[in-house]
């Protein structure tokens, strides 16, 4: 069923608020784990490179850490894919469940981080994998909130098209820029908070996801009702 223009505007508002906030969360979590274990948890590119590097250097401990991160991220994405049953962004009740479980994983990561246990890495990576798989596309645009490679690429493509004199959809450039800014702000916040509170800083992300997920589940009937109204317009 094709969406009406008013329905798209409704989803656009959610994306322009939720997208940057999710990116901020990912940047915040990633930099805290990066400061502690020198392994990213919000994207797998660096960890895949470490698999080859650590394997060649026979660094078994770091190899296991990088492998656990990649596997956990994959499992997290698979869980979200199974629960949400779709790749295009639209409101689903199970989004709330994803956030709740993500919050629990961040809580476990915070607990293990306080104990300086490397289990904090796969726990946080699983949560990030769940978040990144929430929605893969919207109105023909790829959506990612836990890593910035695709975001920066899409911004560059849009700027290149505009430089050639072609018309672009400015809302896309604005959304991508906000997501990038959110991730960058999250990294700054993560450093500042972790410098002061150490492992306790990660509990903030856990509670944010838990409260957000529970709130979404409670408000879903009203959100869904608003979607149904705009779709029928």
TrEMBL record:
Keywords from the UniProt entry: Membrane, Transmembrane, Transmembrane helix
Regions that span the bilayer: 21-41, 61-83, 95-113, 119-138, 170-194, 200-219
Protein name: DUF1275 domain-containing protein
Pfam families according to UniProt: DUF1275
Organism: Stagnimonas aquatica
Highest taxon in the source lineage: Bacteria
PANTHER family: SLR0142 PROTEIN, UPF0700 TRANSMEMBRANE PROTEIN YOAK
InterPro entries: DUF1275 (IPR010699)
